Amino acid sequence: MTQTEQRQPISFAFLAQIILILNSFIMLYPVVVMVFSAFKTTGEIFEHPFALPDFTQVQNFARVLGETSMPTYFVNSIIVTGASIILILALGTMAGYAVARYESRTNTFVLLFFLAGLMLPLKLAVIPLFILLRDLNLLDSRWALIVTYTAIGLPSAVFIMAGFLRSLPAELEDAARIDGASEPRIMWSVMLPLARPPMAIAAIQNAVPIWNDFFFPLVFIQSDSAKTLPQGLTSFMGEYTTDWGMLFAGLTIAAAPITLLYIALSRQFIQGMTAGAVK
Amino acid sequence: MANVSIRNIRKSFGSVAIIKGVDVDIDDGEFVILVGPSGCGKSTLLRMIAGLEDITDGEIRIGPRVVNDVPPKDRDIAMVFQNYALYPHMTVADNMAFSLKLKGTPQAEKTKRVQDAAASLGLLPLLDRYPRQLSGGQRQRVAMGRAIVRDPQVFLFDEPLSNLDAKLRVQMRAEIKELHQRLKTTTVYVTHDQIEAMTMADKIVVMHDGIVEQIGAPLELYDRPANRFVAGFIGSPAMNFLDGVLTDGGLRLPSGAVLSLDGQPALPAGSKATYGVRPEHLQIVPAGTPGAIPAEVAVVEPTGSDTTVIAKAEGGNLTIVVRDRVALRPGEAVALQPVARQVHLFDERGQRVAGL
């Protein structure tokens, strides 16, 4: 009797573990194959696709970094993603703060306006966007991508930040106000340190698609000097032959920063910063 | 330290009037408690003193200065909130030093003031901890420490004890009172708990529905409530009320029984009136005693130090508190004899009738 009662939850947990382990295999498998292949020649990849490579064979990486424009693409990707995320977080947090913490008749309208942006796929508006950027003289520059990504990312950032900031107790603001803090100071010293988890969420959920985006660079960028990684990597795919080893080395380099960012920020996801603020 | 003067203060949210003209004078160094049921406007009034709510009409002075349009940080006040409102990402020391940091106080003085305040509240071992690592009582103390560090003219407390358990509440009550006796800073304290009000205050302001019902020393409110609301609000268990009509020298209940009055009420015979008697001023006497109210025991609640008896009588239940051990059973017929000297009388509008 007792045994069956105990066995059931254990077997459930066991099953859950099995599913999660299987899932991580499915998720990690392509990543592992990508990293392994980066250390092999094209011949080796087709001969022994799953074999452990010789990790001292770094000539693929050397060639990617030395003989191609990969370093330029990499720097461009960092600049475009970094600038977009900084703009999204700065503007999104300020807008979200205003919407969440100050009472105003226009608040609902402003929030709905941003929410409407969430429902509009900007890719549908690519032709007017192209014309707009052409008229602004931004085409074929990194700015074309930065302003586009910022516009795409802002609605969700405002939504996430407003939702979180609204949940912070008003007494914290009152206490800071009595302690002598100005309004910008309240935002900067009291509210924003508490808003790190949603900022991390907004950062990651925008950074990953921006880093990976292929569509807008394809439309807006022609010169090699402004290309980002996803677009640049396509030049490794030859019309007749492809150096798969180099391509995988490029992909590994391209995937590394965003993976590291994810690992670094995932702690913020879990951390409950408000614990202890109020009872 | 300073006195606080509140003159004809009004507050409306849109067309809804929350505070409808309140006058309160708080002397320098006085401990004043605003008490009343939820929604009576006491917290709003406190927040107006703090500068966290706009004043619709009227005037608030702290010391000689009208502060209506002075921002909170320039009012020289400190406030302790119900949920403490400690900054979760700062240590105890940083929480306490935050206001000094904003003022640009030199490091040495800042450290000294935080140390002094922490020492007086027994917080020294906790200075490096974060609020989430503290118990409820410790958080409460940090919130008080944050207020003390500023050395303000006025302390404001907004229901500071209502998140604590009963035992801790009694302990913190004594600590706050002791703190006030030591610092002698003018204090305005909001609570809905009339026991807190009775035990801590120099002066109680009873509020109800946006107006002040009565202002006075705790025992003054208890012994001479100005109206039926105060009489019912102050005291636990609450005062018993019996409605009737005044006769010569007594009050006739609808059943015809006449309760005697000690004195000559300033109200003509034949007027409707309410007879109020506190639970400890009702004596249980054998059934059938002349001049006593016939009743039937409903519930007996022994607490150890005294016993609360709830009895059914005409016009509703009556509560009696007796110090002696009583052998009463539910359903038993008794009679209740009010102590005539201790009876209160209220007119039809609920105002106290003089002459008793």
TrEMBL record, chain A:
- Protein location: Cell membrane
Name the SUPFAM superfamilies for this protein.
MetI-like
| All copies of domain ABC transmembrane type-1, residue ranges | 74-265
Keywords annotated in UniProt: Cell membrane, Membrane, Transmembrane, Transmembrane helix, Transport
Top-rank lineage group of the source organism: Bacteria
Ranges that cross the membrane: 12-39, 73-97, 109-131, 143-165, 186-208, 244-265
Asked whether the keyword Transmembrane is assigned, the reply is yes
Q: Which Pfam families match?
A: BPD_transp_1 (PF00528)
Q: How does it sit in the membrane?
A: Multi-pass membrane protein
Task: Give the family, as the similarity comment puts it.
Answer: Belongs to the binding-protein-dependent transport system permease family.
Would you tell me the protein name for this molecule?
A: Carbohydrate ABC transporter permease
Q: Which organism is it from?
A: Microvirga puerhi
From TrEMBL, chain B:
Q: Lineage in the entry?
A: Bacteria, Pseudomonadati, Pseudomonadota, Alphaproteobacteria, Hyphomicrobiales
Recorded protein name is Sn-glycerol-3-phosphate ABC transporter ATP-binding protein UgpC
Q: Which Gene Ontology MF annotations are present?
A: ATP binding
Regions that span the bilayer? none
Organism of this sequence: Microvirga puerhi
Would the keyword ATP-binding be found if you checked this record's keyword annotation? yes
Residue span(s) of domain ABC transporter:
4-234
PROSITE patterns cross-referenced by the UniProt entry = ABC_TRANSPORTER_1, ABC_TRANSPORTER_2
The UniProt keyword set, sorted, is:
ATP-binding, Nucleotide-binding, Transport
Q: Record's family?
A: Belongs to the ABC transporter superfamily.
Pfam families hit by this protein:
ABC_tran, OB_MalK, TOBE
Q: Does the keyword Translocase apply?
A: no
